[in-house]
Amino acid sequence: MVIHALLAASLALTSLPAQATVNAPRSVDCSRVKCLALTFDDGPGEYTPALLKTLRKAGAKATFFLVGERVEKSPKVAKEILAQGHAIGNHTYSHAALPALLDYEILDELKVNQEVIEKATGLRPKMYRPPYGQTDERVLRVAYQAELAEILWTGTTLDWSLRDTKKIKAVVLKLAQRDGVILMHDVVPQTVKVMPEILKELKKQGYHLVTVPTLMRAKGLKAGTSYF
Ligand code: NI
Predict the structure, then answer these.
(1) pLDDT, tens digit, for every residue of 1-22?
(2) What does the mean pLDDT of the chain come to?
(3) Burial class (CB in 10 A: 0-12, 13-18, 19+), 159
(4) Helix (H, G, I), strand (E, B), or coil: what is residue 187?
(5) 91 is known as an active-site residue
(6) To the nearest 10°, the Cα dihedral for 146, 95, 137, 64?
């Protein structure tokens, strides 16, 4: 009841029609409402279209960190992610552990994927997530050259290791927090399968499911800076 009253109040304040607010989460102001950013790494893959359908039905937006080699295999899926209002980030061309590479190799991993994503979707990402979460000062300096902000997370599900719908659901709900960023993988079928239940529960808890740029709108994203 309290959540409904707050929602009604925030809708009245924005003076937008309720329907527009539901369908256009970009207008969500995370300084006023409870936001959460769901993020999906390693795609696009064979389960991504099913996930997009689930997100669309729930009116939820998410962020996808794409691997260049996979974008080359499924450029249309990459384009569809963007068309549905989700955000796209760079997850390197070949899912490389960046700190192990030389500077020019790191730059190649990031910039080649920028080109691949731009060719497929028309968008040049402004953020990246380092594979395996492996990063350091040198990687960040190269990311600055590639004009990319680094996006980590507040909670990681380890869904690729759990491979169990009930466990994945439980861990996502446990990790959910206001202004949080949750790491999952759309290449894990169990994650995609259980997503309708997860979205239903998160919405019941009053979360607005938004993209990382929407979550960061007030603070902004700076190239070469690491967030979360
Ligand atoms: Ni990854």
Answers:
(1) 444 544 444 444 444 444 434 4
(2) 91
(3) buried
(4) coil
(5) no
(6) 70
**What does the alpha-carbon distance between residue 59 and residue 25 come to, in Å, rounded to a whole number?**
8
The single residue of 91, 108, 159, 185 carrying the catalytic annotation is 185
Q: How far, in Å, from the CA of 122 to the mean position of ligand 1?
A: 22
Amino acid at 60: A
- Integer-rounded Cα Rg, in Å, for the chain is 17
Domain span at residue 35 reads 25-227
* Residue 50 to residue 170: CA distance in whole angstroms: 21
Task: Look at residue 27 in the predicted model and tell me its pLDDT.
Answer: 78
60 inside domain? yes
| pLDDT for the residue numbered 20 | 39
Is 206 part of a structural domain of the chain? yes
Structure tokens at 152: 């980590």
CATH value at residue 57: 3.20.20.370
Overall domain count for the chain: 1
214, 139 contact by CB (below 8 A): no
